Amino acid sequence: MPDLHRVCPLSELPEGEVRSVEVHDRVVAVFHHQGNYFAVDDFCPHQGASLSGGHVENGCVTCPWHAWRFHLADGAWADNPKLKIRCYGIVQKDGDLFLELSPPANTNPI
């Protein structure tokens, strides 16, 4: 059974917004982009900038420090898709948004 952590009510994360959530020893950025919810580790592996402070466009978040771009759907670095940041599952239940702490099997974290 996955470890679920409540993020917020769905109504508190409108389209185009992001929320940074601390869970155990992790900080995760949760995005609402193009009608979908995505969750990735909230740090850029380059120099540790918070990705929740980055710009989101066309399914990618851009690091606010040095413009590294990562695909929200699978965490792949746009310049080298073999390198990925960790992604997490999102569950919508009873009007709330939950973070699934077990990363999907297709993730190969940097």
Oligomer: single chain
Largest sheet: 6 strands, antiparallel
What class do helices, strands and sheet pairing give? mainly beta
Q: State the distance separating the first and last CA atoms.
A: 25 Å
Number of strands: 11
From the alpha-carbon coordinates, what is the Rg to the nearest angstrom? 13 Å
Identify the strand order in the major beta sheet. Answer: 1-11-10-4-3-2
CATH superfamily placement: Rieske [2Fe-2S] iron-sulphur domain
Helix content: under 10%
Instruction: Give the mean pLDDT.
Output: 92
List segments where confidence is low: pLDDT < 50 over at least 5 consecutive residues: none
Kindly estimate the percentage of residues that lie in beta strands according to DSSP: over 45%
Overview of the structural elements:
By secondary structure, the protein is mostly beta strands. It has one domain: Rieske Iron-sulfur Protein (3-layer Sandwich), CATH 2.102.10. It contains no helices and eleven strands. Strand 5 (55-57) and strand 6 form a beta hairpin. It is globular, with a radius of gyration of 13 Å.
Descriptive terms for the model:
110 residues, six-stranded antiparallel beta sheet
Describe this structure in a few short sentences:
With 110 residues, this protein is mostly beta strands.
How are the SSEs ordered, and which strands pair?
Blueprint: E1 4-9, E2 18-23, E3 26-33, E4 36-41, E5 55-57, E6 60-62, E7 69-71, E8 76-77, E9 80-84, E10 87-93, E11 96-100
Antiparallel strand pairs: 1-11, 2-3, 3-4, 4-10, 5-6, 6-7, 8-9, 10-11
